[in-house]
Amino acid sequence: MQFHYLAINQENQQLNGNIHADDEQAARKELNKLGFSVLSVKLVNDEETSVHNEQFDHLLKFKFSAIDSTGKKIIGTISSKDSKHAYVRLIQEYHFKVESMINVNTPNNYENLTELAQFYESMSAQNKQPAKDNNINPEENKLSSMQASFIKEIDNILHSTDDIYGKYNRNLSMEGRKKISESKETLMRIKGSYNLDYVKQVAQSLLNILVDQNNFEHDAESKDIQNKIALESQKMLLKINQLSTSNTAINDISSSFSSFMQHKDNKQETPSKIIKNKEAATLAENLRQNWQEIKNDLVLWFRSSAQNRAILQNDIKELFKKRKNLKKNWASSPKITPQSINRTKNEVSIEAGHNLWLEIYYFSGWLTLFYLIYYFVSYYIWTKTINFSVEMTKFIADPYAPSLIRNVTLLLFSVHCFMSIQKNCLLANKKHLWIGALSGSVFTLLLISNF
Questions:
Q1: Which domain holds residue 402?
Q2: Cβ atoms of residues 358 and 351 within 8 Å
Q3: Which comes out higher in pLDDT, residue 191 or 289?
Q4: In this structure, is residue 347 part of a structural domain?
Q5: Does residue 179 form part of some domain?
Q6: Which end of the chain is less packed: N or C, by CB atoms within 10 Å?
Q7: Residue 133 lies in a domain
Q8: How far apart are CA 207 and CA 267, in angstroms?
């Protein structure tokens, strides 16, 4: 039977072609052995085969013998406009070591592999030359940066999974070992893909398998080990869940620092400034990651059992010690001048300030809603519009009395309104929200003093 496949190789290149196999499952296994991440496999009928052949009639067909990445010998055919491009495809897309290749129309004339190898090397050398004049697409840069962060976190997950599998193999159930192996192999194949949502989904699936106690043996020792593994897996799960938002917020910190250090007249930076710039960005990134780990552990602390809380408490203490050392390194690093430290600190504080004011804006909105609901409910109760069997006025303050509740409601409502006007109608910039907050506070003081 012949199947048409759509797959992604380890270099994130999308491949499609036909493969012969007994059934769809066998076709998928053969493609997986080649290191492909299979997107779809579809049975090709006779009519589709004839159409496919017509589309490729203008291409030459070459029969080849090669060794794949697992050491297995492969004999097959490939269509291309000439032997050179066929050879390049076999190496780049399929990672084959080609032993022989021949045009099916001239079965007695084998292709010269030495010439083909020289062509491939010259083409690779040209591709490696830096393209200085080409404009770099910012979206591609952002995607590459996000992918690099994903790969780094995925590598950490795979490394931790290998450690768990090696140390606690006997504590895992047979079904658990099978699930972990299959999920890990899938993640290894696709970790370099630009389909970040799918990579994230597979990583979450692997971590959920490690958290699930049904994948462990049911003795006392395995239960304690499963508890420890579940805690570490939950930490990694929080990190992988935060990756997309973290990358959007960071937006490549190193490039942000580089642009910040540029002069208004676009003067070129000296190499020494760029080096200091990157060092400052690294320190800032380490501090950010440390703070994120502390927040994650605090979230887990509230969710965890008493046993895990003691472990997390020690982890949080260690993270704060690490943060203290990072701050010392930031302040005392001899590679960064005081001016550079102040400038990079300002850049980080600007981003932190943006997020702080935005959090205050959203928080004040929800709190305002809560107080307004309370205010109007209390109004209807005091005016006897709503009749209760119990005398509710004993428990709810009079909304007309000059009380703290009334003043807090006024303050929240005014601050949120002015911040909303500032954000949506005026400067439309998060860093200017403090103007709205200050205006709302002043307006509240005027209201309270005159009424």
A1: 353-450
A2: no
A3: 289
A4: no
A5: yes
A6: C
A7: no
A8: 48
pLDDT band at 351 (very low <50, low <70, confident <90, very high): very low
Nearest-10 Cα torsion for 46, 48, 50, 54: -170
pLDDT in tens, 76-119: 888 888 888 888 888 887 778 888 899 888 878 888 888 888 88
- Strands 14-20 and 2-8, bridge-based pairing: antiparallel
Shared-domain flag, residues 209 and 265:
no
CA–CA separation, 404 vs 400, rounded Å? 11
- Contacts of residue 448, defined as CB under 8 A and 6 or more positions apart, other chains included, come to 407, 410
Q: Tell me which of 189, 217, 245 is where a domain ends.
A: 245
Judge contact between 306 and 249, C-beta under 8 A. no
Give the count of domains, the chain. Answer: 4
Are the C-beta atoms of 332 and 268 separated by less than 8 Å?
no
DSSP conformational letter for 5: E
Q: Specify the amino acid at residue 213.
A: Q
The residues that bridge with 63 in the sheet, in sequence order, are 77, 102
DSSP per position, 241-284: HHHHHHHHHHS-HHHHHHHHHS-TT-PPPPHHHHHHHHHHHHHH
Q: Is 26 exposed, middle or buried (0-12, 13-18, 19+ CB in 10 A)?
A: middle
Boundary of a domain, candidates 127, 154, 173: 127
More confident residue, 87 or 126: 87
**Which of 57-66, 189-198, 221-230, 240-249 is predicted with the least confidence, judged by mean pLDDT?**
240-249
Residue with the two structure tokens 């799960």: 237
DSSP H or E segment with residue 62: strand 60-67
Q: Do 119 and 52 share a domain, yes or no?
A: yes
Write down the pTM of the prediction.
0.40
Structure letter (DSSP) for residue 336 = S
Give the type of residue at 100: S
Q: For residue 150, how many other CB atoms are within 10 A of its CB?
A: 22
